[in-house]
Amino acid sequence: MANLERAPRRSFNDLIYDLIFKNYVWQSIFRTGYPNTPRNQMLAVATNVFLHLHPTRIHRTHVKITHTYCLGGLSFFMFLGLTVTGVLLMFYYVPSIERAYQDIQELEANVRFGQLLRNMHRWMAHAMIILVLLHMMRVFYTGAYKPPREFNWVVGVVLFILTLLLSFTGYLLPWDQLAFWAITVGTTMVGSAPVLGDESKFLLLGGFSVGPNALIRFYTLHVIGLPLVISIFMAVHFWRVRRDGGLARPL
Amino acid sequence: MVSRAAAAIRTRPRREREAEVLVWPDLVFIEFISALIFSIALMVLSAMVNAPLLNRADPDTTPNPSKAPWYFLNLQELLLHMEPAWAGVIVPTIALVLLAAIPYWDRDTEGQGVWFGTKFAGRLTVFGFTAATLVTSLLIIWDGSLHVVWTENVIRGLGLNSDFSWPGGLDWFRNLRGFDTGIPWESLGFTIGGFTMFEDWRAIPLGIPGTTTDPWLLNLNFPSFLSQQIIPVATMVGLPVLFVVFCKGLGWIHSRRDIALLIFSAFIGVYLTTTIVGTAFRGQGQDLKPPWDIVVLEE
Prior knowledge:
The complex is a heterodimer. By secondary structure, chain A is mainly α. Chain A is built from 12 helices and 1 strand. Chain A is flat. Chain B has a two-stranded antiparallel ribbon with strand order 2-7. A two-stranded antiparallel sheet of chain B has the order 3-4. In chain B, a hairpin with a 2-residue loop joins β3 and β4. In chain B, α5 (121-143) packs parallel to α10. The relative contact order of chain B is 0.14. β1 (57-59) of chain A pairs antiparallel with β1 of chain B, so a sheet runs across the interface.
């Protein structure tokens, strides 16, 4: 009978486990213990600032890939990736017409992984637009805009416009022929508005044609103005997903 | 009186705990994997395909064709077929407002949370998308006068008439501008009482005092107004209405959700078609060309 009272033999793995997860520093960061029990798993989500975007439990149908294809989450993930690569690109780029083009050339030629960095930023931007569009289609075809989610659909439409604007403002920055003429064509379309057309074009370009003022305006909007605005709308969007009862499902 | 939105929340049945899973690990795992797959895919793409970088910007050298970023090429495509104010600003604004307004118009809470939740949703989606794609393509072909080229080539190629060219009597059917330039407007005046009406269709006085520099406000150029504004707008309003009437006739439409499904799918069709045509089928002078014939010249 003595055997039963003896504590079970502690293996080497247990020792490592305790060393990592049961020390004072670890527990000051993660208060809830390793998420290997349902209680700790829920606490892990609820007490983590990043994860608490989620509820602790969700309906079984919502983890089916074919219900959402992760499109909204991936759009947000693209935004995060674009922020990271964008910040890194800012180290090498000066938004003046004397330096902009040269900076991109040097980034591609002289900076280690510079070309990869720029490629990532560009393809992620394209991917984000496509993902946002697909996300909108997913929400529409699953009828997820219906009450009580009307307003969040409107926020989504605003996010779509902001995504396009973010991409459009970034398009000018390399200051090559592609950038210059694409923005010239784009802003000419703005200028054809029946009311305040010329005025909005002037406001956007800081002049009558694409030049140094336009570059600095597009740059500022691209790296700080629009990211701030889109972050606010994203916060509202995610918050409302939770507030409106999570993902839509049949009544 | 509670709002419909509030009622929708209130009447939701209590959540059944058995039907739920834990976010950690079930959802967090999926999110992590999908993020990982996308990171790897984009990394591979970036390693293989370089972002384009052309020559340094030069305001004196215009590339032909000059194109907006691809996600605005649907609007640039519209620009070729109507007054720039409609294509560049008014149409997209109205489209976005209508898009945002969908849930305020289709308020029925039935059928949410499932793909294609109504009985005829699948058919409406396929029909809306396919029909809109087809009609848009045909309109683009017509406005690009491709039917003229094809007819001429076929008749010449078959040896029926080696000098055949599009008959002058059908000039009005060459393209959209044909309504402007292909009709003898000068001879179309008519007389009411003692007055000869619209002797000059290209400068119909509107009686608006001249405070603006826009000439058509003062003197309406009716043929141009017809081809650049009336016909495009009537098409954009008329075709969706026609689609709805047609599907209603087939008995496919039973709710606002059905109409929304049809029109949204048609919108996606138009959006995709115009984007693809604008991106891959527009060469120099914005002429319709197959993608492999498109060369960008710098002028």
